[in-house]
Specification:
By secondary structure, this protein is an alpha/beta fold. It is built from 6 helices and 9 strands; from the N terminus they run ββααββαβαβαβαββ. It has a 7-stranded mixed β-sheet with strand order 3-9-8-4-7-5-6, sandwiched between helices. Strand 5 (about 110-115), helix 4 (about 115-130) and strand 6 form a beta-alpha-beta unit. Helix 3 (about 90-105) packs parallel to helix 4. It is globular, with a radius of gyration of 17 Å.
Length: about 220
């Protein structure tokens, strides 16, 4: 399994990381943990943190997961866009992606969803797999229909004690925002999860501070 980018690639053992990576994990905390989780799942990590980064007192990180809603149904033409439900494929994909996240050790402290029916159903399905109570899912009107700048407003207003947050919303805004964060991500398919690690202690800095790591996963990815 290859982990990293062109400037910093290293191989991760199938069962246990090499000693150097274990030392980096202790030193660099969540950024390296994100990379190791993703590598263990066979995912490519973009902008991986350097393993020779010196220890920085008080170093912290914010982890953000942008999730596009699962495949929706167009069968009921009389329904408004906001009321469209998940298609059968979407109902299958959402719990599968939730299981993948759980197996990677992802544990969001907060899940925020668009008010659209398909997005909320996706958020609830993911929450169920992650052991997150569906009653704790917050709904934010700014996530629908999905303007990138409005989504960024939601992110920058998050409470600072939170370190890992999941937003469930829509294209084109989520894909546009993901591309702003990592140029290697150009599109989020339905039920895609883009996980970003930012080298900052404040949500208000998201998009202004350097990206430590980025992982993209989606149902059809092998």
């Amino acid at each position: 399994m290859v982990l990293g980018n062109a400037d910093n690639c290293f191989k991760c053992a199938e069962e246990r990381p090499p000693a150097g990576i274990r030392r980096a994990l202790r030193r660099d905390g969540r950024a390296t943990a994100l990379c190791l989780r993703a590598s263990a799942a066979g995912l490519t990590v973009r902008n991986a943190p350097r393993i020779d980064r010196p220890t920085v007192a008080g170093w912290d990180m914010k982890s953000l997961l942008l999730v596009r809603h699962a495949k929706s149904s167009w069968d009921e033409q009389a329904l408004s866009d906001k009321d469209r439900p998940l298609a059968q494929r979407g109902k299958r994909d959402a719990p599968r992606m939730g299981k993948r996240l759980r197996e990677r050790g992802v544990q969001p402290q907060l899940i925020v969803s668009s008010p659209a029916r398909r997005a909320l159903a996706t958020a609830q399905s993911l929450a169920r797999q992650l052991g997150y109570a569906k009653e704790r899912i917050e709904v934010d009107e700014r996530l629908y229909p999905g303007d990138a700048d409005r989504v960024l407003q939601v992110i920058r207003a998050l409470q600072e004690h939170l370190t890992c947050v999941m937003l469930v919303g829509h294209n084109p805004g989520l894909s546009e925002l993901a591309h702003r964060f990592s140029r290697e991500i150009t599109d989020l398919p339905t039920c895609a999860v883009a996980e970003f690690g930012f080298d900052t202690a404040s949500w208000s800095d998201i998009g202004r501070r350097s990206l430590a790591a980025a992982v993209l996963d989606y149902p059809k990815k092998a």
